[in-house]
Each structure stands twice: as C-alpha cells, then as structure tokens.
C-alpha cells in the first residue's frame, strides 16, 4: 500500500473514542511489509488535544493529496481506495513509458461493437 504514497499524515486525539480507524491504519503503515514496500514514504502522526475529528491525509507519488474522515471511513476502506488508485497510477505510468497517450480514449463506435465471444468446447469435442 505504501509503495504508491510519498507521505501519510494521521491526526487524532488519543482520548477521542472515534480513533479506531486511525489506529488501525497506523498499525498497517507500521507493518514490516508495508515499510519495506516504500522506505521513503514519510509517516507523520499528529496527536491532537482539541475536538478536531480524526483524519488521515495521504499524498500519492504523483503529488495528489487525499484527505479521509477517519470517523466514518474504516481503515480497510481507505487501504482499498489507496490500492485502487495506485493500480491506476501504475497503469498510467506504463502507458506513458511505452509512449502511448494517456488517458486512453476508446472511440464511441468501438464501445458499441458486438463481440463474437468464444464458446467453451465440450470435453468430447476436444482432441485427445
């Protein structure tokens, strides 16, 4: 998960009962496997003393910053969103390295073309 991020900032008040998501996400970030995936990723923890709701701010390697409300978003959902966006970034990078335009634009007429598909052959039809 961290391999797609350059910075993670977790803010919470330790006395706030809504910190479960922040603490779980912090534990995931501190896991050995996560740290090894991107040792350059900065992890900042800000322990607050006010009533500010817990939040998680992530900065992707392309500079895009996203803020999650940790009171209403489970840590696993945040992790899944990061992985999905990370796969998108990897795909974009792969196309750019290959010299292809990004984003890929599929012509409207190709979207509506029928696809003949393939039919699975029955076992007795296959050559043995």
The average pLDDT score comes to: 87
Structural class: alpha+beta
Uncertain regions spanning at least 5 consecutive residues: none
Task: Give me the strand/helix succession.
Answer: EHHEEEHH
Give, in spatial order, the strands making up the sheet with the most strands. Answer: 2-1-3-4
As a whole number of angstroms, the C-alpha radius of gyration is 22 Å
Major sheet: 4 strands, mixed
Instruction: Give the termini distance in whole angstroms.
Output: 46 Å
The DSSP helix count reads 4
* Helix fraction bin: 25-40%
Q: What amount of the residues lies in strands? A: 15-25%
The coarse silhouette is: elongated
Keywords: Mitochondrion, Ribonucleoprotein, Ribosomal protein, Transit peptide
Family: Belongs to the mitochondrion-specific ribosomal protein mL53 family.
Pfam families: MRP_L53
Region (Disordered): 107-128
SSE layout and pairing:
Blueprint: E1 5-12, H1 20-30, H2 32-37, E2 42-47, E3 55-60, E4 65-69, H3 75-97, H4 108-111
Parallel strand pairs: 1-2
Antiparallel strand pairs: 1-3, 3-4
Helix pairs in contact: 1-3
Pfam families: MRP_L53 (PF10780)
Organism: Hibiscus sabdariffa (roselle)
Family: Belongs to the mitochondrion-specific ribosomal protein mL53 family.
Task: Give a structural overview.
The protein is 34% helix and 20% strand. The mean pLDDT is 87. The chain has helices spanning 20-30, 32-37, 75-97, 108-111; strands at residues 5-12, 42-47, 55-60, 65-69. The chain is of the alpha+beta class. A hairpin with a 4-residue loop joins strand 3 (55-60) and strand 4 (65-69). It is elongated, with a radius of gyration of 22 Å. The chain has four helices and four strands, in the order E-H-H-E-E-E-H-H. Strands 2-1-3-4 form a four-stranded mixed sheet, with helices on one face. The N and C termini lie far apart (46 Å).
């Amino acid at each position: 998960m961290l391999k797609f991020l350059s910075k993670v900032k977790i803010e919470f008040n330790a006395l706030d009962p809504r910190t479960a998501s922040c603490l779980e996400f912090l534990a995931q970030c501190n896991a050995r496997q996560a740290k090894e995936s991107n040792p350059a990723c900065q992890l900042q923890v800000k322990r607050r003393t006010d009533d500010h709701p817990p939040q998680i701010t992530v900065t992707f390697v392309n500079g895009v910053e996203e803020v999650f409300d940790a009171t209403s978003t489970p840590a696993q959902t945040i992790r899944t969103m990061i992985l999905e966006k990370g796969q998108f970034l990897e795909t974009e990078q792969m196309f750019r390295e290959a010299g292809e335009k990004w984003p890929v634009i599929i012509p409207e007429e190709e979207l509506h073309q029928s696809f003949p598909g393939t039919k699975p052959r029955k076992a007795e039809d296959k050559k043995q």
